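Sanity check record (used in CI):
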Amino acid sequence: MSISARADPFPQRDSWAAWWLSRLNTDHKLIQTLHWRKAESKPFTEGAGGWSPQATDRQPWMQLDLKDRMEVTAIATQGRYGSSDWVSGYLLLFSDTGRAWKQYREEDGVGRFVGNVNPNDVVHHKLSHSIRSRFLRFVPLDWNPSGWVGLRVEVYGCAYKSDVTDFDGRSSLLYRFNQKSMSTVKDVISLRFKSRQAEGVLLHGEGQRGDYITLELHRGRLALYLNLGELNTGAGCGRVAVTLGSLLDDQHWHSVLIERFNKQVNFTVDSHTEHFRTKGEGVSLEVDYELSFGGIPLPGKPGTFLRKNFHGCIENLYYNGINVIDLAKRRKPQIYSVGNVTFSCSEPQLVSTTFLSSSSSFLSLRATASSLGGFAVRFRFRTWNPDGLLLSTRLALEPQRLELQISNSRLRLTHHTSAQQKEEVSTGEARKRFSDCVSGCPSVNVAGCVNPTLAFQGCMRLISVNSQPIDLNLLRQGRLGNYRELQFNTCGIHDRCLPNFCEHAGQCSQSWSTFYCDCSGTGYNGATCHNSIYEVSCEAYRLAGSSSGYFSIDPDGSGPLGPTKVYCNMTEDKVWTVVTHNSTDPIRVQGSTLQKPYIMKFNYSASPEQLIALVAGSEQCQQEVTYSCRKSRLFNTRDGTPLSWWVDQAGERRTYWGGFLPGVQQCSCSLEENCIDMNYFCNCDADTDSWANDTGVLSYKEHLPVSEIVIGDTNRTFSEALYRIGPLRCYGDKSTWNAASFYQESSYLHFPTLQTELSADLSFYFKTSAPSGVFLENLGLKDFIRLELSSPSVVTFSFDVGNGPVILAVKSHVPLNDRQWHYVRAERSVKEASLQVDQLPLRFLEAPSDGHLRLRLNSQLFVGGTAARQRGFLGCIRTLTINGVTVNLEERAKMTPGVSPGCPGHCSSSSSLCHNRGRCVEKNSGYVCDCSQSAYGGSSCTEEVSVSFDRESSVTYTFQEPFSVMQNRSSQASSWYRESSRARENMAFSFMTTQSPAMLLTVSTFSQSDPVPLWYTGSLQIWYHLHVDRRPDVFILFLAESVLYTSLSFFILPLHQIDKDMNLKYSLTSEAELISIKSLALGKVTEAVSEDVMWAGSKGFIGCLSSVQFNRVAPLKAALLNHGSSLVSIRGQLVESNCGLLADSAILHSHLLSINLLFYKDGCCFSQIGVVTTVVFITLCAVAVMTRFLYRHRQGRTDASVTEKEHRHNLETAYRRETAYQAEPAYRTELHLNNSSSLRNNREYYI
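Expected output for Contactin associated protein-like 5a:
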């Protein structure tokens, strides 16, 4: 063993001596311990001394020569003995030759080692993967700021022996089998190689039936081609090509392991493994005659090869336990050598230089004149950056100069002939490989190296000027030129896309210092494509305000499963998720026997893994089985052997049929005791000549869905069966209301350790009245992750992955301990960390580019507290999801003191779960919406109730007793309030018609002579006729012909402007009030009214009316749901329709809205040409006492681009305004959580 210090251009340093303590060859023993002292110093005792460079050394390093290749497994360092000199951070490099070096990096890419904090303590580092090398170099990065560099080292490991062969690019080794062909179902191939070129075949074998295996370097990556298919199955069948590794032509050793069993293959390059299955029907690899290593020789033509041969060294080559190189060295007959194959590894004298900085690195060379005149430069380079200056030089003819740069990943040569003129040539792709380049020579003047773009950041080697190679050692000593921020004898390029940290098939790209993920088309977003852009369930879409339709759901969120499309049925109280399969139509079966049964396999629109996740996350699932039979039995055999059955999701045979319990061969008629023959448990087992039926519903969700059906008794005369398997239907989301209540500060729930080394997302809802508390915590030896409410208005996310603690905090402008639900989402990946609280701005922090990546935890996950039982959380936590997996808080809470399952108060904490006057009803695990007081239906009171009218249709709703608007007033309100709000009516509806005139509705009273009609004549007209001796008040709203769909509001209140946008005020002349309301009629008017009203009323209404609301009455909904009610009178034909949905679809194509509001003093009507118009008309009508008839004229223009959600919001505006106006408790605001995806920008959380 020997040591050396780096040679440098400064005066000769003091001589150094090394002291050899021990060197052991047993595994993982101490190789050597090194201490140093100055040669002229006095003798020292054990432990004294240490290495310390001169203060003038610009780039100090210390190098060890182990005299032979050793396997190093650990290192340890100390500072210099008896001094204030130590190294606090360093790099470790290794080399076989002492010239070409490679930096050691841990599994997560970290190359920096943490050193000492004092001169005496020993800091050990066990290497995650061992180093097999002769030379080690320690490069100090940081040291004691109050002292200097000081170092003592220990190296641990064992001796390393290997069998090596060298291929010169024109040679190969052939391993010949003892028989004609070798057929194997299991193969293990291992080797280590280092290559001088980016292309070359390392291994190849093939068989006559089409099987082959090829291991080949291509563009510095290793590709495995494996084919187990048959020749007659078509081109490419069974072929698999998998690529691993990067920059493998760096002239350093790389390890390869191929393990195959049947169709399963594990392919490992260095520490990166790819698992895959071969395609095709074959399970064995059949290779004829021989395997070749280093190339593919052409049969019958010695020295001729089909592909480019491997140029480099291979060691320890094993094929199924056989040491191929050892057989070749011993000249065994199984091995045949082609070309010049030697058994030692020749080392090329190639030295690379790394340009470390994209802003300040440069290399300035003194150029000598060429004998032919002019200048020439040749070099090879490698980089990840798409831009950078490679070369700049002044030419002999001033002011001409030459520049070579990488621009947008292409080489561009620019010849500047003058200050204003230049010539350019662009060619080639400059990234990810070494390229030969010839161009003009750089200037010797450093000031001449002006970077018009970014400086080059990457590696260069084989630099020559005017055909003279540049000795980089002389350059480093300052004899050939000048430089800044270069690293000699190594190429420090690092592939940041290996491994690929982009999840869900995201595409990775990179620069020198970082990587990027392209998530296009993956269904995910975020820095590493971690976050799903879809909801996890149909229930989540309902909470977001959606209605029935097809949606993409992601059952495991950010987990490995992708999204799938399902139908979400939200028309009932339960939200049903419907998954279809390939055979939903009835199928007739004949001619099947138990020996040759009929078999149908069902392929669902979701993968089996997605179906399992969907079923597991649902409260209940079911699948209808319709089975009709004629002389076709199910179970009627003497020995009890079933004749037909179905197969569940796990591949298990099931013999119970729809409607019965698992484990019993029976049908639903047995359970209901109504089988046609009580001697049998199924109707079909009666084996009659007439058709029978055993239809039922499978509801044991752990067995669903049905994956296969087998029918085996339809081969007799007149025997047949008819079956239909319905779609899988599931309802409920077990995660949405999975909650736990914490009522003791020392209590917590504990779960297994988080498995979130590289990425973690955690989300949940909480509500509390406590000022602080820890939501969750998980600890490691040094690493940790924690989420907490650190103060009443601040949520904090903190963690440490080895780079020091990171803290992200979001502060709310209002207290968060207000006993309302609040949403928290924290994410940590190798790229960044983020924290989201409600709709507050997202906080995020980028991760260091060369820091530790893996979060290493080893304790339990604590929820609602900490292991120290301090700073526990008091309140409720629900829907805790970690990396797409919902944590079952309720189950663990049942057995934990101080914690109870569930959390009451869903409705009180969420003001907008039920829309359009729907009432939220509390349940143990959630809520339901009571829509009885709403004109809308559905699970959230958002589905429009629509009816199609013809000319004779009418609906009359009669109030139970004389109804006065005065009952809406509060007796506790002030006199000012009573005066300003009396005579208020709240009316809302939608209509669509092509008829003009058309009567929409009328309101009749017991005391006034005429009703209050509203009709459409191309314009909207409202008539108020409250006195016999006075003319009616008439208001007209003109609709521009360009209007397809819009939402309007206007209010009639005395002396008050309600809204400055769409809400318009009208004033009446009548001094009477609209009191004692008798009835409300929709459509044709049948009672006696004035001549003017009858003119329009007799025409009736042809079109669609939707979601009619009058105060707290929904007459149209009552007409549909209560046909026999004495309150509802229906005339003519009334048909329930989806015309309201058609009107909603028109929102997507709305145009400019032009509103003209005109008042005529004489009260006459105005008629406009009828157009197809769809209008949602919201009006608050109030009758006030005025002294004279007053007309006001206003014109307004507004642009309407209305979404479905905005439309419904407008329909609710009047009711909310009325509620606030009556001084009831203020409704709570809807919180909109804005996410990065466009889809989620439309999502609402009501909390």
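The first strand starts at residue 2 and ends at 5. If this sentence no longer matches the regenerated tokens, the check is flagged for review.
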